[in-house]
Amino acid sequence: MWMYLGLLAALFLGLHNLCKKHAVQGNEVFPVLLGTISSGFLLLLPFYFGSLLFKEYMVSIDFYITNIPLETHGFIAIKSAIMAASWVLAYQALKHLPITIVTPIRSAGPFFTFIGAITIYQEKPNSWQWIGFFLIIFSVILYSRIGKKEGIHFKRNKWIFAIVGATFLGASSGLYDKFLIQSLALNPQTLQFWFCFYTVLFLLIILTVTWFPYAEKRKAFTWRWTIPLVGILLQIADYFYFKALQDPDALIMLLSAIKRSQILIAVVIGGFIFKEQNKREKLVPLAGIMLGVFLILYS
User: Fold this and answer.
1) Conformational region of residue 157, where left means phi above 0, alpha means psi within -120 to 50, and beta covers everything else
2) Are the C-beta atoms of 262 and 7 separated by less than 8 Å?
3) Is the pTM of this model over 0.85?
4) What is the pLDDT along the chain (299 residues), one digit of tens a residue?
5) Rounded to an integer, what distance in angstroms lies between the CA atom of residue 70 and that of residue 64?
6) Which among 199, 214, 157, 222 has a CA at the least distance from the CA of 24?
7) Domain range spanning residue 14?
8) In this structure, how many other beta carbons lie within 10 angstroms of the beta carbon of residue 248?
9) How many other CB atoms sit within 10 Å of the CB of residue 284?
10) Which residues contact 177 (CB under 8 A, 6 or more apart)?
11) From the CA atom positions of the chain, what is the Rg in Å?
12) In this structure, what are the phi and psi dihedrals at residue 289, rounded to the nearest 5 degrees?
């Protein structure tokens, strides 16, 4: 069952990435990010008040947000700090790079998750999973060659380094999720609500320094309908992902790989929507990544 929940998470993450590309194009990145996370927080806020006022009903529909100790708040705040840094880097990169370059690099996330799953959680991949893992990495390297045709030199472009850093931080957060869900026994909605709460606080601090004081930056910001939609889609995807992680048999390295199937939506559909270059050539490494995911998933 947890694999199907992982696929649902991948579906909504793919749609989330398309909306995110539209939201950040030619726009100020930090207020867009704040708007998306705030939208997710507002989506969850009724569940929080419902948990305070109608506990039995919220428990019955499996959306009760539990009371947690101060120490657990600290653990969630750490996750918020990690993801805030990851999103800042990822949104900046997405603003300056084609979605058909950004998304495949993000697909290297299983590389870091794989290593962490083996060393931290002692998850043991078999030979086919190793082959799938290296196939994904090799396919991402092929994307770097295609990227040069679009004037994107991977060794000299700072936005490439930004998206690689975002990928590493995102993978670290994924490994941390297993600890939060299984070791601390947090339910998905509790983790999501407080995660959004602390992330909004961190982003407000960042914007107080980098955006609010500058009138020209505030005027450059354009509100778009995709901004709240990004936040809503992300919360739906995270809910399915965290529900999958609640299963004690769930392997974080396989879930991470399953989530990479979102690339199908981002590259195929996104490439046509945003009229990006070299779509046919990108289908070759895309097939490699999908085959790698298939080997990891079905080995």
Assistant:
1) beta
2) no
3) no
4) 788 898 899 889 888 888 887 888 888 888 888 999 999 999 999 999 999 999 999 999 999 999 999 999 999 999 999 999 998 888 778 777 776 677 667 766 777 787 888 888 887 777 887 787 778 777 767 766 665 555 555 566 788 888 889 988 988 998 999 999 999 999 999 999 999 999 999 999 988 988 888 888 888 888 999 999 999 999 999 999 999 999 988 888 778 877 777 767 766 666 666 555 556 667 777 788 778 777 876 76
5) 19
6) 222
7) 2-298
8) 7
9) 12
10) 79, 191, 241, 242, 245, 252
11) 19
12) -65, -45
Place of tokens 């407080």: 194
- The total number of structural domains in the chain stands at 1
Q: Over 126-168, what HEC string results?
A: CHHHHHHHHHHHHHHHHHHHHHHHCCCCCCCCHHHHHHHHHHH
Q: Which residue has the tokens 């043991």?
A: 124
d(CA 121, CA 299) in angstroms, rounded, equals 20
- Altogether, the residues listed in the chain come to a count of 299
Q: Which residues contact 244 (CB under 8 A, 6 or more apart)?
A: 1, 2, 3, 5, 6, 9, 250, 255
CA–CA gap between residue 284 and residue 299 (Å, rounded) = 22
CA–CA distance, 244 with 8 (Å, rounded to integer): 10
27, 221 Cβ separation under 8 angstroms: yes
Q: Which residue has the tokens 């996750």?
A: 79
Separation of alpha carbons 185 and 46, rounded Å? 22
Count of C-beta atoms within a 10 Å radius of residue 199 = 25
